[in-house]
């Protein structure tokens, strides 16, 4: 019966040998060690395991890529081809140091896939460790914020940078309603005392440039405020226990009025006015300093951006210089020397042409001056000078024509060399040709297998039909001769007929045996041809790789020639 084609079952033609098999086993072990346990499933194909492992590693890296990498086991061959192309397109964005082509993944070229897989597994393990630590630390932080206690192993891991959670403040005293309206300093001091804190815990003396008189006055004012705060705190601490049950921890206005006199309030208000004026000046000065600081930061950011851009340009120039040196090292010395000599000749011819044109302009200017001078001279002298100048002009024209011919010859040689270089296909065209040839080969192979299966099924059905017809004829003969075979006179004829049938069967058996032997020989011959074709395919793949390298070198040489021509 006909076998299903590879196009319908989404399979690729894979080159199988011992080295490829060993490398594929190493890739599966690498994926399993990284945590991709689907590689252990025996029912999956090697293509599904490898492509699934690549997609899994890229997803673990948690990078943003504008490419669809949806992997499914039931994908068609077109979807799998698109997936391999997307994987190859994503790898350079991850700065993968190894090159890989889609047809190498489709053909399971494990020798080229192995270094890329090692790099992807390494990046995936690092990303897993990095994101795992972040998730663990975030979870531990959330648990501690909620007041839960973590197990000992997580507590030990999270106590390095752990900071204690501050408790919410609790009110110990309540302010009396008879106090009236207080200024800012008194209000802050009383509020701190209500929560059991001293005013000295948060007071920071500002650094202000003042003269000695203002400084002494400010120090006296601050001393009075601190003394007042201490007295209030002592009164609260002494009077609170006895009044807690009757007045709900409140302080009377009488106590506060006895502690604060009018002079203190007046001095505090004056100091507050001075502090407000100083505060406004400090705010204006701070705004000016912030503006200047922002300008400096902006200039610093611009300079840093320029420095980074110059550094990147320098690195790019160094890389280009190194690549150019490598290309020049790999190029044929004779061809390079011929190109250099041709470019030098063209440059020299152009330079000579420019120099000659400049000299001609200078000579024309001098001649015009002489003509102007001669026009003012006698008629006889002007005729002789004009003949001499016309001879010089003819000589200059002949030299100009010779230089033009030399420059045209050099330009023709340069055009021929450019045409020879342009006649070779580019690397992109070669890759497209190779991709289309691979797709065409896979399609033809699948169609060939389908047609071969159809022919085999047809031949089998024809043989079965012939055998059934012979069996029917034999049974009909037996049925016709059954009554006659009982008689004695027909026994001898029956035996002769049976002998003839046995001989026919033996003849058919001999014929089938010879056909079997011919088929076995044909199978051995086809196997030898298959081995020869496999060897040819290996040589072809190697030649294609070398040809691609030479094409890349050719493209680089063309770019170098174009750059030299532009300069």
Describe the structure.
- The chain is 78% helix and 0% strand.
- With 567 residues, the chain is mainly α.
- It has 4 domains: 6-145; 177-308, no CATH class; 341-422; 427-566.
- Helix 3 packs across helix 6.
- It is flat.
- Keywords: Coiled coil.
- Residues 268-559 form the CCDC93 coiled-coil domain.
- Belongs to the CCDC93 family.
- InterPro entries: CCDC93, CCDC93_CC, CCDC93_N.
Helicity, in percent?
over 70%
Work out the oligomeric state of the chains in this entry.
single chain
Structural class: mainly alpha
Mean pLDDT: 76
Count of DSSP E strands? 0
Shape: flat
For the record, the count of structural domains works out to: 4
Q: How many H/I helical runs?
A: 16
Ends apart, CA distance between termini = 69 Å
Main beta sheet strand tally, sense and closure: none
User: For the CA atoms, what is the radius of gyration?
Assistant: 50 Å
Helix and strand run: HHHHHHHHHHHHHHHH
The residue ranges in which pLDDT falls below 50 over 5 or more consecutive positions are 1-10, 156-166, 201-210, 239-252, 258-263
Strand content: under 5%
Features:
567 residues, mainly alpha, 4 domains, 16 helices, 78% helix, CCDC93
